[in-house]
Amino acid sequence: MSERVRVGVPVEVKDRERRVALTPSAVHLLIERGHTVVVQRGAGQGAGFSDDDYLEAGATLGAAAAEVWASDVVVKVKEPQPGEFAHLREDLTLFCYLHLAAEPTLTEALQSSGVAAYAFETLTDVHGLPLLAPMSEVAGRASVIVGAAYLSASLGGNGTLMGGAAGVPPAKVVVIGLGVAGSIAARGARGLGAHVTGIDIDLERLYRFRLDGTLDASQASEPALVAGHVREADLVIGAALVPGALAPTVVTEPMVASMRPGSVIVDLAIDQGGCIATARPTTLSDPTYVEHGVVHYCVTNVPGQFPRTASAALSAAVIGKLAILVEDVASGRAGTAAEHPALAGSLNVADGRIVHPAVAQALGT
Ligand SMILES: NC(=O)c1ccc[n+]([C@@H]2O[C@H](COP(=O)([O-])OP(=O)(O)OC[C@H]3O[C@@H](n4cnc5c(N)ncnc54)[C@H](O)[C@@H]3O)[C@@H](O)[C@H]2O)c1
Fold it and tell me: Are residues 49 and 100 in the same domain?
């Protein structure tokens, strides 16, 4: 039996973020393995879990954030916010979304604290990015709901209904990047009756999603070809990703300027810097701005507004990896060559250095 590890689950403090990293049943799993879990009071409230649910699962409740952050391992959803930087310390292991390529200030805070920071979004297995996928699924579904809503004239959109009407063509939707988020967004847009074009560098995905009916049209990601589709689009959804790196700029500013006034852009890739040149991060409190007459929605925590679904999906994906990380921390293997292969790609910062190659390259170190 390995040493008992104390795991902390703080309240999320990012703007309107209501998710929680672990459900009570996931907490119970850690407790069964002999570890201690400290959950901050109210952490699960937004996701439908009461403090009593966590107590019944065997957790201890902490009133103050500092109490929870004093744990050996802190598991949370979003990257530490500036108000949380003071909790970072050398003997802490952090496991959460980090998206460091677009977060130099946070990277600096992680490096100077000496914390061992493991990112959900760069953990890699044979299937891809298992801890990014659940939130990409939620964000992909949500992007269509949001995009369709902002096309409404009363929200500043051009007044096109996704499915059109008898004798009237549907909205044209262009999805950039047909991975987890993009392919689900494309399906959702098709489900609402829109005409959907998918763009990717991966030709196999273009074939697959064209042939299975997810897309009306598919297009290789080449600037001149992308420009033609974007110019005609009512809604562009950005979901291109190169893991760990800054997102590629697929849609340039002149392409955005060529769009009709009141068209809508939802750039999910904004957490990695955005794949649309005019995208800059927005919040759930203030989600949109207009540039070149186009409504931009670039919220970095889209799933935060669907905390029940998103927390359950995230926790289910995270708990297995967290259990391994906790064992590695207990046995001193974490962050060493003996680290469990199931954590591959996750360690981003350790001993004051950026250790993930793509993240290091994106940040020019
Ligand atoms: N904003 C949010 O709240 C939120 C939530 C979840 C996920 N995301 C983000 O959504 C993005 C997509 O995530 P995912 O899990 O779907 O990634 P994924 O790896 O499953 O898919 C990415 C796709 O982008 C394609 N791609 C790469 N370079 C491209 C280029 N130059 N042109 C066109 N396509 C290109 C890849 O081939 C791949 O098909 C990520 O940045 C992720 O962090 C954002």
Answer: yes
